[in-house]
Design brief:
Blueprint (H helix, E strand, L loop, with lengths): L1 H4 L40 H13 L14
């Protein structure tokens, strides 16, 4: 995945697929906000940890399982 996105940091990128990466409810952190991702699967496996590490390094987030934010 890193090879495909290298040099494209300024572009909007959506990556999809089945990575066999179980990330529990992690991966929704945004700077200055609490995580707001929900999943029935609370398990984090090795592939999930690798994916979460990459997300953290790149400043990316997982968008599925996120709650719609309420208007204030």
């Amino acid at each position: 995945m890193e090879e495909r996105v290298e040099g494209r940091e300024e572009e909007v990128t959506i990556i999809g697929g089945d990575w066999n990466a179980r990330t529990g409810e992690e991966g929704a952190e945004e700077r200055g906000k609490e995580k707001s991702r929900r999943s029935k699967d609370k398990t984090i496996n090795t592939e999930g940890r690798m994916l979460l590490r990459l997300l953290n390094e790149r400043g990316w987030t997982i968008i599925n399982g996120r709650d719609k934010e309420e208007d204030e």
